[in-house]
Amino acid sequence: MHCAACQSTIEPGDRWCPICGAITRRSDPDSERRFVTILRADVIDSTGLVAELEPEDAVSRLEPALAAMRGAVRQFGGIVSKELGDGLAAVFGAPIADDNHAPLACHAAIELVRRVSGLGDPGLQVRVGLHSGHVVAYMVASEFSKVYEIGGAAQHLAARLEAEAEANQIYVSEACQKLADGHVRFEFLGGKALRGFSQPLPVYRIVGASDLSSWRVRRARSISRFVDRTTERALLGRAAERVGTGRQTVLLLGDAGIGKSRLAHEFAQELKADGWRLIDAECSPNLQGAPFSTLKRLLLSILDAAARNPDGSGDPRGDRPLIQRCALDAVLDLPISEPQWTELEPHARGRAISDASCAIVESMTRHHRTVVLLEDLHWIDRASDAVVAAIASLQMPGLLVLLTSRPNGMPVWIARCRAEVVAMRPLDDDSGLAMLADMLGPSVANADLKNRIISHTANVPLFIEEVCRGLKDSGTLRGQWGDLALVRPIDELGIPTSIQGVIAARLDRVSRQERSLLQIAAALGSRLDVAMLRKIAKLPEKVLQDSLAALDRTELLVGIDRDLGDALEFRHEMVRQVTYDSMVEKVREDIHARILATFETDGTCADEPDTLCYHAVRAKDWQKAFGHGTDAGRKSLSRSAFADAANYFEIAMGSLDKTPMTPLREADAIDLRMEARAAFIASGHVAEWLDLGKEAARRADAIDDIGRKVAAMTVGAGAQNFYGTPVDAVAVGEEVVRLAEQWGNPGWLNLARYGLGQAYFLAGRYRDAERTVARAHEQLAGPEPRAPIGTAPKNLLVLCCMMMSFTHIIMGELDAAEQLQQQAAAIAEETNRPYDRVAAAYSGGWLMLGRNDPAAAAAILEQGFVLAQKHGIRLFVPVLACHLGMAYLEQGLFDRARGMLAEAREEAKAVGYTSAVLRSSIYLALATSRLGDTQAAQNMLREARNTARQQGFSGLEAEALFGEATVTPPSSAENKAAILSALRATIAIASESGALPLRQRAEAMLNEMPVRGDELI
């Protein structure tokens, strides 16, 4: 390690730097990422207050405000992480997670301002900023103390909000406001420009604490109806039936979000409708430090119920003995003037409060069946705890005490009062789907999404609601609750910030050893086996088994069906993700490195390079990430998973570039780009394909590697056929062929000739195209065929057959085209490679169009179109769609043709396939004309013809001209002149290029029209 002051090397045992003498400061190795709320507060213009004071006086001037700040933070469970002389930074939700960190921080801020204002010093005014976000939290040890530090961008936003706030105001970020809304009242201040942030950020101001109970806040946010809970409701029903024979206390026990409060209130309302009196209250996380805060709420509920009682029994305190009335008044914060009360010892007062509370509950129950509902016992204050225990133990027929609690906060007296504990479980799948149907709607279109949400949330009701809310708020789901539609694909469902703290709090209940094991499991994935976990964790067997048993009991990592082996899985994906996110980067890297080493050693994933690549990238072992990423790309390519292949090749390229620069590395980088081209070509990433060639050529120049430069130029030339103009493509292609012939590599020469032939074809030089591709075809069909890296000879031969076939079709040489098509089809059948089958279908459909059999053409092209879409062969999709539209057009299916041709044009635009955009536009215009919109058709054809002429697509220019002649009505002299001009231009271009069928059709049309001089008559 190194000294923080002078960066000198320090031995692990040194307490001081041997060079500069600075005290060694070490970060605790258990630092982790946390989702917390940060509070920043300071005294305004503190410099002006103390500038002229002596040091002692300056401290005395500011210390009361700092003490008030500390007290407010600690009252609401915050940790003061740093004092800043005139202010402080505090964190809520760490080191122990708390899902209420944002509301607690807001209440602490309100209390902080109140305390400082109450000092009576008008010169002491504070401002506060609050923000919720991820931080890295850790202990920093010095010679004399430990300080809990937080790091990350979140603390800077809190500081900027503090600096923006006005005197005695609290400014809050949107993230914090969303988490605390309902518990606190806010005013939106609009977007504010904060220093260091490029865009204005939404800012809120706290205007006060809310008087809503936690249940009312949760109920107001609820977006679903109550479902199922048949078993739990039956247990509660039997408990209510038994109250006539004696005491009955029931505790609903479950983790946050499981639905305890929802069930309790639904059942209590049923009892109320059946004539029961309801007394309800809740424990508050904000008031855990306030003595008798829970009991006060309970007593207020009793008094309210009594006041609303139709029998007019009045205030139940009236018939209590004097001491008990005083006890109740003390809890209710009412003034007491009785000397008997003030003379009592504290223990006697406590006893009197307990007796009075029990007596008043008994009094209420004596006249009416009563249910006392007390929620969230895990937050009960210590003073109220004993009194509630006494109430729950009352031997009183007609009284049902219904309690809720989380497992980690269950009171110790529950067993003593013989309460029935009802353990709450997640919903079953049917109930979860019913809940989702209520929120999203019954549409079967959302069936897959609903199943994903069920799996992601493990049917925890709160998690289901919050995931759906997040999807709606983000715009992924649109519409109204009960009728929502998915408008874009979802890669990950994510974890709403509202429930991150809920899950983090569960993780904090396990031991450090168990948490470490859980982190390894999180890195391995949602499902894993014990044997692999054992190898990586390297724990004594008893420790491992004890830890797994503990994690199973907490339902964080559970055993699954033994038929699947000794397997484990996370109860739901959210637990895995929060566990994984809690690790700092160095811990993650270490775990993934250990996993990778284990997999490589025992060969567990020898045939799964994608898994090895995943762990190598996260371990930041870039050399291995390059190797495994390349293997994963090749594997995906062999399966025609082109999008996946492109992704893995990108990972491999990026990883290799993170290794030290050497000529060998650069050679590997060039070869990798050459090999990756097939994935980018097939998946339609034309711009990226072009960039591969340019980048490889640049690198080849840098290391003076002529061979690799020729290869790179060949790849770039191929991309030019799709992304550039024919003139440029031909010039580049001719140069590449010349260099490839000089270099003497037959594989790259074959690809270069294929690319040049394609360029000639697009330029309308069909004879040159056929001759050039024929030379590559001859070599590839010979005894020693050669193809470049990343392409098999037969695959390139199929493309040559395809290209030559439709070149012959355009020239009217159908027998030659037929022979080549048969060869392409035979190779495709032999390889059974989707790419080859799609290429053969494309030329096969074109051949049937050339033979004037559009129905047969459509059948072939439809198969190819489906296959291309299924395998993500996006480069072929627009041309297949275009020719399929042409086949529909020839059959008279004009609506179908227009729809398919419009789709072809849009897909061609998205890919960047210039010639496909033009051809689909031409035939879309013909379909539009046949559907009656002649003017629109003429405009489209005119635009296509001008573009083709400007960019050098002479063959497409001729087709557009012939289309103009076809759709233009001979209704005026001007139109007749335009038709004649278009036909003659078509004939001229077709004659020069060798497009015999097009020339013949234009001549036939011209011959059928009466001509006088240079005009139609």
From TrEMBL:
Pfam families: AAA_16, Guanylate_cyc
Sequence ranges assigned to domain Guanylate cyclase in this UniProt record: 37-162
A Gene Ontology molecular function term of the record: ATP binding
Keyword ATP-binding: yes
Keyword Membrane applies: no
InterPro entries the UniProt entry points to: A/G_cyclase, AAA_16, Nucleotide_cyclase, P-loop_NTPase, TPR-like_helical_dom_sf
Domain of life, per lineage: Bacteria
GO-annotated cellular components: cytoplasm
SMART domains reported in the protein's UniProt record: CYCc (SM00044)
GO biological process entries: cyclic nucleotide biosynthetic process; intracellular signal transduction
UniProt keyword terms in alphabetical order: ATP-binding, Nucleotide-binding
Annotated PANTHER family: GUANYLATE CYCLASE DOMAIN-CONTAINING PROTEIN, TESTICULAR SOLUBLE ADENYLYL CYCLASE
Record's protein name: ATPase
Lineage: Bacteria, Pseudomonadati, Pseudomonadota, Alphaproteobacteria, Hyphomicrobiales
